[in-house]
Fold this sequence. Notes:
The chain is mainly α. It has helices at 11-37, 54-61, 63-96, 102-114, 117-131, 137-161, 165-173, 178-189, 191-207, 210-215, 223-233, 237-264.
Amino acid sequence: MLLNYDRMGGLQWVLVFITVLVSLFLILPVVFIIALSFGSSQWLVFPPPGWTLRWYQEFFADPRWMAAFWTSAKIAVLVMIFTTALALITSFALVRGRFRGREILRAAFLTPMILPVVVVAVALYAFFLKIGLNGTMTGFVVAHMVLALPFAIIPISAALAGFDKSTEDAAIVCGASPWEARLRITLPSIRHGLFAAMVFSFLISWDEVIIAIFMASPSLQTMPVRIWSSLRQDLSPVIAAASSLLILLTLVLMLLAALLRKKAN
């Protein structure tokens, strides 16, 4: 039997208290990192003795940080485009297809979501090393696509499953070709699933660090890899500034997705 929140009495305040504590536990480290990025000390000292924008200025003035930033952005955009396109085709096959082994194929596509990331990273590293893709932009994009594909298939498949196919069939009866009906009727109807797939694909590539460490080379590093490498050398507040920018972009995209979903409803 499900719990009724209105009938819980005093227990509901215990639940609220626990929820607030867990939320603070998860949010406070992020708040500390952002505060350290504005601290005047040249070390990561909390609370900061003063406030400054010096570390953000150093971040944008350092060509190594900017190269890592633009590398992450390029890879994330490519992963978003190719993963969403591949997930759309795959979702059509999984939702509308009627062939033997469909559920096995679905499970295979969702496997990277279940496996530990380090296992996927080692496997991709060994394979890409043999075919010469390790340390290349193509290798980065393909590796991140493997990780992001399950998270793109799920929202698109859910949107397709909830779409009334009779609308598409009616457009075909009225003279539209099957491809025209899908482009003009189906795709606009599942746009929220497509947008969710795009956001998930971008963020997974943007924030991913384990596979990126295996794929990186001295001349090709993403922002998370650059942060990881810098942490092993020193504890400059520039690292906190770079981390804050990663967090900021992630929050902006998530808020944008929430606003668009609210507007659609």
